[in-house]
């Protein structure tokens, strides 16, 4: 099948994978929109925002981003976040190929947030992810990335990819509407075809 993710022959010899979660593995936006609709009666005009603060998908509402922390601390909605189907397939294939997978997320490090997110990983990615590192809400990943040997790093924020490159990692920007105008620096690649653009997967299909 043309769209099938096929592991490259050399996948097991490549560096480990470090990945962001929200916007790369976990579908933050869909769950946030459910919260905004049920709690505030608001409907977005699109699922994925062009602006990271969601102002473009809630054009008639002032500062929708002010509700993000309330959403994250609401287990009924935050705990209902799903995993993107292609991410689920890709991570399972990478694990089967012997690739070590670490998730580094700045979604927050409170006990309730970590519990909800680990419940999701345990439910959907049992035995697939080797380690999860939680950082304070919206904090930078640079200091954490310094502790890892050269790895393949994925994030949907250009600043984190720049930081990863500076720390000796191979950085890949995951394409989203809100980073479509980002200009990747030298050494940063954009995953034009999402997960299948990673060097772990065959590019011959």
UniProtKB/TrEMBL annotation:
Keywords: Plasmid. InterPro entries: HAD-like_sf (IPR036412), HAD_sf (IPR023214). It comes from the Bacteria. This is Uncharacterized protein.
